[in-house]
Predict the structure of Response regulator.
Amino acid sequence: MQRNGMSEEPDIKSRLRGISILLVEDDPDTLAIFDLFLTHMGATVATATTVKAALKMAEEVQPDILISDLQLPDGNGYDLLDMIRKLPSSSSKLIPAIVMTGHSTPFSEPAYNQGALSGGFQKFLAKPFNIDELLAAIAEFTRGVDQDAHVYCCDI
């Protein structure tokens, strides 16, 4: 990526290297694109298409951050986040989370944003969104992660 004649990709790659992401999206094409892109940017990505699969993956992987679609075939992102934060591992209780949806409009976006924040998410993204916004949020919310050990070193 180029901005103002300077490449930002190495900086973002270094910030995402070692970050474990649980990506939950029911649309297979969207899931594949995000998975490929985030992996290319240096993150380790585990994917799921349902709440049930995401819970299993969260227990196995203990991700540093959750990125979830709001509406899933067997539930929603709010319920998923609540269930993940109730898992026994201490890191799951603190997991930062980003929710995204393609069901908002410019008029409903503030309500979705407020609902996401009050529902425990740190960031709401309306699809389609600028990928830089997603990358910046991942980097911001995972700054307290020990990049090698995948353990939180600070309160979030």
About this structure: The two ends are 29 Å apart (CA to CA). The longest strand covers residues 20-24.
